[in-house]
Amino acid sequence: MIRRFIEKPSFSAVADWLNEQGVPTAQDIARIRAAAGESTTRLAAPKPRGARWTPTTVQAVLVSRSLLGEYVRADGAVVRNDDGTPVMRSEPVLNEEEWRKLSEAVASVKYKKQKGSTSPTVGVTFCMLCGSSLYFVKGDPAKGKRERYRCHGNKSKGIQACPKQRFWAEDLYPWLESALLGEIGHLERMESKTTIDDSRAAKLAVIDGKMKQLLKELQQDEITAVAYASQVAGLAQDREKVTNQEGPKPVTVWTGTGEGYAEWWERSSVDERREWLKKHKVRAYFGHDVLAIDPGDLIENIKQRGITYWDVPSKSSQMLSPITPISFHGKPCEKPKPHTGVEWEIVSRWEDFDAERAAQRAKAEEEAKGAEGTEMVPISA
Fold first, then answer.
1. Which DSSP string corresponds to 34-98?
2. Hey, which bits of the chain come out as E strands?
3. Angstrom distance (rounded) from CA 291 to CA 270
4. In what order do the strands lie in the sheet with 148-151?
5. Could you report the per-residue pLDDT of 185-200, keeping only the tens digit for each?
6. Is pTM beyond 0.85 here?
7. Could you report the per-residue pLDDT of 96-137, keeping only the tens digit for each?
8. Which of 139, 299, 341, 358 gets the most CB atoms within 10 Å of its CB?
9. Can you say whether the dihedral through the CA atoms of 235, 240, 244, 248 is positive or negative?
């Protein structure tokens, strides 16, 4: 379960796999052990209920420090000895470095239940004018109100909502989908993995994690100040020693998955797409007549595939490269000013997308009429 999640961070995918394998949930395992007399835990109803794994229950297991063998209360607090060391309840499933890797994987796709919103693009779509997030507004068919996205500005930064920055939900998502897949849909989907041939960063991360955990427990009055000071002093000395060591920089390697971006997109849920876009830091900026997409770290994969400014796009958009000036058909040509502020971006005009969509709808209607008008011709005897 842990290895599968680290290789492909997805709470929902792990939950589906566990259910397919018939693995009991953590609660049912506790009931099974209690019923067999293998646990001192007292349960009112020790009989297994046959509960299914969900993304939330998978996350709860993967963030629990009980994987390190530590005694963890129901509220998630670690039980500690008088000297501040954790009380060990069982053999650790992971060591400190493995725990760090798991924590990084969890942090990259941490599942958060959306409250009061069914937006499929939260954290991905932004206003091109002010850079603030676009918020999803539910519709009300009874009152003739359509679902839409609006710029609400950012009150904490003193940014007012941009007037007329409104996009119908039925237009925004297909536009984003068309522009993005128009450039990368035909490419093999790649996943990145950052490696480092040195334990220095891992040691620092482990020490920092321990110090952070101790501070959290001190603030919650779960450990005494004396015990905290004693533990932190030792960790500080260890950190100083490790900091003075030199090590190589991390190296990011992209590996193929065997399927195209368009294929993956088609079989994925809206939530999975959103989390994937956020993981790769893809940001889409919408204006009233133009869409500009910052590909985030996907640009490394795109650049490796040789996409440049003068390549012919498969859709009505353009991939801009950081080459300026360039020569196009023998004429000097300056690279257009980017909309997103980054060197590489995918740009799509609304009129191009709207015309393309209208053509697709017209073709579908013609094909439907043709199918309806086709008569069955009897075979001659």
1. HHTT------S--S---PPP-HHHHHHHHT-GGGGTB-B-TTSPBPB-TTSPBPB-S--SS-HHH
2. 125-127, 134-137, 148-151, 166-168, 188-195, 251-260, 283-286, 290-294, 317-320, 326-328, 331-333, 345-349
3. 20
4. 134-137, 148-151, 166-168
5. 888 888 777 665 556 6
6. no
7. 778 888 888 888 775 444 444 457 888 899 999 999 999 888
8. 299
9. positive
